[in-house]
Amino acid sequence: MPQQVTRLAVVFGILILALVLARSQLVPKTFGQAGHYRAAAVTEIAAAKIHYAGHEACAACHEDIAKTRSAGRHRNVACEVCHGPAADHVAAPTDVHPSAPKQRGRCPQCHGYDSARPTGFPQIDPVTHNPVRPCISCHQPHAPETPREPEACGACHGSIARTHAVSAHALIGCTRCHETDRRHKTTPLLIRPSKPASRAFCAGCHARDAGSPKEIPRVDVTTHGERYVCWQCHYPHFPEAK
Ligand code: HEC
Ligand code: HEC
Ligand code: HEC
Ligand code: HEC
Ligand code: HEC
Ligand code: HEC
Ligand code: HEC
Ligand code: HEC
User: Fold this and answer.
1) What pLDDT shows up at residue 68?
2) What is the 74 CA–ligand 3 centroid distance (Å)?
3) Which of 137, 169, 193 is the last residue of a domain?
4) DSSP for 14-73?
5) Is ligand 7 within 6 A of the CB of residue 168?
6) Containing domain of residue 78, as a range?
7) Is residue 198 part of a domain?
8) Same domain flag for 221 and 196
9) In 3D, which of 155, 180, 153 has the Cα closest to residue 237?
10) Contact in structure between 177 and 196 (CB atoms under 8 Å)
C-alpha cells in the first residue's frame, strides 16, 4: 500500500473522530427534538424579561396624555419610543419612573435634517433651529404643532428686516408704511400688503409743514427731487441723505 494512502486514512480518521466528539459534546441537548433548531430556545425566549409594555398599556392610567397624543401629529410615535422601555413602571408605577427626553438630543434623531427622509417629513437643522432652548419649551411633545403663522415680518422678509433694523427708519414699524392683512402671513402671494404710492406719503413726515416730531429732517417737497417718487433716490428701508 502506498505511504500516502495510510497518511490520508489517518487524517480522515482524526477528522471523523473530531466530528463525532463535537456532535456529542458541543451540540446542545435539545437540538433536533422539534426540528432543525434548539427546542429549549423557545422556553428560554418565552421566559426572557419583557421590557416594553406597549402604548395600549400606558393609556390605562395616562388616559389624558394618550388622548392628546392620538389627536396630534405624534399619533404614530409610541410612548416608549420617547420614554424608553417602561414595563417595570407599569408593574410598579410609583417606584420606577420612566425617563423623559427633555433635552434637545432626542428629537433631532427623527427631525434633524437628512436628505434620505421622505419629502414633507418635518425636518429642522438642530444647530440653527432656535438653539439653546429645549425643544419642548416651544413644542408640546405629545401633540406637537408648528406655529404656522410667523409673528415677525422678518421670518420671511429677513434681509429687509435686518436692513431696516439698523436704519434711520428702525423705529417706524413695517405696518406704518405697509397696511398688512393678517392673511398675508399665511397666503402671502394672494393677499398683498399695500405699498406707499406717492411722494405725499413720505411728505407726511418729512415736509416742512408736516405735523410730525421736530427731530425728523425736513425737505421742501415742492422742489426736492420733484419729478421722482422719493424711493427712486432713497431706499425706504435704509434711507440715506448723502
Ligand atoms: C398602572 C398605572 C400606570 C400605567 C399602566 C402607566 N403609568 Fe406612568 N405613571 C403612573 C403613575 C401613578 C405615575 C406618577 C408616579 C409618581 O409620581 O410617583 C406615572 C408617571 C409617569 C411618568 C412621569 C415620571 C416622572 O418622573 O415624573 C411618565 C413619563 C410615565 N408615567 C410614562 C408611562 C408610560 C410610557 C407608560 C406605558 C408604557 C405608563 N406610564 C404606564 C401610572 C401608570
Ligand atoms: C415624542 C416623544 C414623546 C412621546 C411619543 C410621548 N412622550 Fe410623554 N413626554 C415626553 C417629554 C419630552 C416629556 C416631558 C415634558 C415636560 O417635562 O414638560 C413627557 C412627559 C410625560 C409625562 C409626565 C409629565 C406630564 O405631562 O404629565 C407622562 C406621564 C408621559 N409623558 C406619558 C406619556 C404617554 C402615556 C405617552 C403615550 C401615549 C407619551 N408620554 C408619549 C415625550 C414624549
Ligand atoms: C420616533 C421619531 C420621532 C421622535 C423621537 C420625535 N418625533 Fe416629532 N414627529 C414624528 C412624526 C412621525 C411626526 C408626524 C409627521 C407627519 O405627520 O408627517 C412628527 C411631527 C412633529 C412635529 C409637527 C411638525 C408639523 O409640521 O406640524 C413637531 C413640531 C415635532 N414632531 C416635534 C418633535 C419634538 C419636539 C420631539 C422631541 C420631544 C419629537 N418631535 C420627537 C416623529 C418623531
Ligand atoms: C424658541 C422656540 C422653538 C424651539 C426651542 C424649537 N422650535 Fe421647532 N419650531 C419653532 C417655530 C416657531 C417653528 C415654525 C417656524 C419655522 O419653521 O421656523 C418650528 C418648526 C419646527 C418643525 C417643523 C418644521 C417643518 O418644516 O414643518 C419641527 C419638526 C421642529 N420645529 C422641531 C424642533 C426640534 C426637534 C427642536 C429642538 C431641537 C425645536 N423644534 C426647538 C419654534 C421652536
Ligand atoms: C409667510 C411669509 C411672509 C410673512 C410672514 C410676511 N410676508 Fe410679505 N411677502 C411674502 C411673500 C412670499 C411675498 C411676495 C414676494 C414676491 O412676490 O416676490 C411678500 C410680499 C410683500 C410685499 C410686497 C407686496 C407687493 O405687492 O410687491 C410687502 C410690502 C410685504 N410683503 C410686507 C410684509 C409685512 C409688512 C409683513 C409683516 C406684517 C410681511 N410682509 C410678512 C411673504 C411673507
Ligand atoms: C418708511 C416706510 C417703510 C417702512 C418702515 C418699511 N417699508 Fe417696505 N417699502 C416701502 C416702500 C416705499 C416700498 C416700495 C419700494 C418700491 O416700490 O420700489 C417698500 C417695499 C417693500 C417690499 C417690496 C419689495 C421691495 O424690496 O421693494 C417689501 C417686501 C417690504 N417693503 C417689506 C417691508 C418690511 C418687512 C418692513 C419692516 C421690516 C418694511 N417694508 C418697512 C416703505 C417702507
Ligand atoms: C412716520 C414718519 C416717517 C415717514 C412716513 C417717513 N419717514 Fe423718513 N425718517 C423718519 C425719521 C424718524 C427719521 C430719522 C430721524 C433721525 O435721524 O432722528 C427719518 C429719516 C429719513 C431720512 C434721512 C436719513 C439720514 O441718514 O439722515 C430720509 C432720506 C428719509 N427718512 C426718507 C424717507 C422716505 C423716502 C420716506 C417715504 C418712503 C420716509 N422717509 C417716510 C420718519 C419718517
Ligand atoms: C432725485 C433724487 C431724490 C428724490 C426724488 C428725493 N430725494 Fe431726498 N435727498 C436726495 C439727496 C441727494 C439728499 C442729500 C442732499 C440734500 O439734502 O439735498 C436728500 C436728502 C433728504 C433728506 C435729509 C435732509 C436733511 O436735512 O438731512 C430727507 C429727509 C429726504 N431727502 C426726504 C425725501 C423725501 C420725503 C422725498 C420724496 C418727497 C425725497 N427725499 C425725494 C435726493 C432725493
Assistant:
1) 95
2) 6
3) 137
4) HHHHHHHHHHHHTS-TTEETTEEEETHHHHHHHHSPP----HHHHHHH-HHHHHHHHHST
5) yes
6) 55-113+123-137
7) yes
8) yes
9) 153
10) yes
User: Does ligand 3 come within 6 angstroms of the Cβ of 162?
Assistant: no
CA 116 to ligand 2 center in whole angstroms = 28
Which ligand 1 atom sits nearest the alpha carbon of residue 83?
A: 35
Q: Are the C-beta atoms of residues 136 and 102 closer than 8 Å to each other?
A: yes
Cell numbers 434681509 correspond to what residue?
Answer: 159
* 12's grid cell: 480522515
Range 207-233 burial, b when 16+ CB lie within 10 A, else e: beeeeeeeeeeeeebeebeeeeebeee
pTM over 0.85: no
197-237 per-position pLDDT tens digit? 999 999 999 999 988 888 899 999 999 998 999 999 999 99
Q: Is the CB of 230 under 6 A from ligand 7?
A: yes
Pair (223, 157) in one structural domain? yes
